Amino acid sequence: MNTRLYYTLLFSFISWSAEGQMAREVAELPDLPWHEHQWVAKLSVEEKVDRLKMLPAGDSVQYESPWYSSDYHEDARYLPLDTAGLRFTDLNGDGKLDLLYSGSSGAMGKRDTKVYYLENGRYEYHRELPGTVIHMNKDKEDNLVVYTHWKPCCDSYTSRIEKYLFSPGKKGEYGSSISVIGRLTEHVQIKVAEQDNDVAELYPIPIRAMKDFSKLRKGKLGSVDLVAFWSDFRGTSPYFRERNQEIRTLLRNRQPIHLLTLEAQVDVRIIAEKMHNNERWFLVLTDAMNDVPESLYEWSAGSQRQFVGWVQDVDLYE
Fold first, then answer.
1. Rounded distance between C-alpha atoms, residue 7 and residue 4, angstroms
2. C-beta separation of 146 from 100 below 8 A
3. Region of poorest pLDDT, from 14-18, 59-63, 237-241
């Protein structure tokens, strides 16, 4: 009998040695339920592609390839179209199907999201959202809330989940963000059956759904002092700018590094616990904070910022 190979894709959150612990603990939380077609029109691939004819002449929803050169006629000008990333939804409440496109936008698996509004029968480009869409819902003010996940690359190490608001008066207004050290990944498990032997391989991909933090235990910090350990940076190649040597020395000696320190009280949710050097540590998600200064969390200064980090002292709510 000829060898027959078949591939079964099983998606699960599985620990992997190259993952940072902090990011893994977040990625292993349950997905927030998302009924996508409650907000997004259910269209076939052919119907999606047909609607792209309403783009202005010379505009492509795809991102231009960073390697494109007009000197080489065989170069592809645009990166491949991801039809699963085409989402047609009413962003401003006018009853028309606007367009969100999440797709490949550069090297190293970079992905971002383009926003188009349908105006006078044409899709007009409005702005770009960092990362790829992972969730949508409506809030109490009837805003359409769009969550994106931005993954770090190269010498960066901070993942971000960001929230943007759409309504007749809001065209992708920033809502809030969550910053996490490490890469937030889930895994595709590929099972290869060859005769009587099964071989399983794991392939990490960025998370595709918002995480559900609502059922976690609650507590309060008397002051903010969030840290990370060497194990949280697995799978990244961090560069800490002017403090690079100092911080790398701490990590090599298995010492925690201080990510963000603020004299502020804040409510938190408890994601995980661990023992380190006979001391108990809690991995927490803070509530949103304002006027956050620059810190070792990259691109995370400003207002309505949430952070995941390790702390020792938490006042737990009953």
1. 10
2. yes
3. 14-18
